[in-house]
Write a structure and sequence with these properties.
24% strand, five-stranded antiparallel β-sheet, binds zinc ion, binds ligand K1U, single chain, alpha+beta, two-stranded antiparallel ribbon
Length: 181
């Protein structure tokens, strides 16, 4: 066996930066489908999403945002940016209370606004190894999980805002996209 053959899976596993879709791209409104098997192809996608999220200085990313319509989320809300959390086929088990927090989105650059969501949630998901886990979350982690789960349903955070605000944001981002052509 040659060196290249012996290490070909490692050589294949070079990480890539994925292009992020920007609102109001209609592909952001696609409902993602469940991952059937967590295999090497899915792990490669998870690693590429993590690299893309870090390069864009975000704390979360849903596969929808990179035009892959599978139910996968990566998050890292830690201070040292070294605590990646992976949620494959996340399922909301319970939620309680209400909390209003400032949100941003890598698909809606430069726009921040307050959104009301559940204060505390419990989710079940698979990790990068395909192992099922449950997690209770509140604060930034809870907000991020709910924001990213919305992406998997084809919902962008601005859809929680008034129609007037949504129209203003659409006009602003369309103008910006034209100027950047
Ligand atoms: O594009 C995304 O879905 C990622 C998004 C996650 C998020 C952050 C904060 C609230 C809700 C969802 C971001 O990473 S936005 C950029 C960011 O780093 C940030 C924005 C506001 C507060 C904290 C962090
Ligand atoms: Zn987002």
């Amino acid at each position: 066996m040659s060196f290249v053959t012996a290490f070909s899976s490692e050589l294949d596993h070079i990480m890539a930066l994925l292009p992020i879709l920007h609102y109001p791209d209609p592909r952001l409104h696609t409902r993602a489908t469940a991952v059937a098997v967590v295999d090497e192809r899915i792990r490669q996608l998870v690693d590429d999403m993590a690299e893309t999220m870090r390069a864009a200085e975000g704390v979360g990313l849903a596969a929808t945002q990179v035009d892959v319509h599978l139910r996968i989320i990566v998050l890292d809300v830690s201070e040292d940016h070294q605590q990646l959390q992976v949620f494959i086929n996340p399922r909301l088990l319970s939620s309680e209370g209400e909390a209003e927090n400032e949100e941003g989105c890598l698909s809606v650059p430069g726009i921040y606004d307050r959104v009301t969501r559940a204060r505390r949630i419990k989710v079940e998901a698979m990790n990068r190894e395909g192992k099922l886990f449950t997690l209770e979350a509140e604060g930034l982690l809870g907000t991020c999980i709910q924001h990213e789960m919305d992406h998997l349903e084809g919902k962008v955070f601005v859809q929680h805002l008034s129609q007037l605000k949504q129209n203003r944001i659409k006009t602003k981002l369309r103008k910006r996209a034209r100027e950047n052509l």
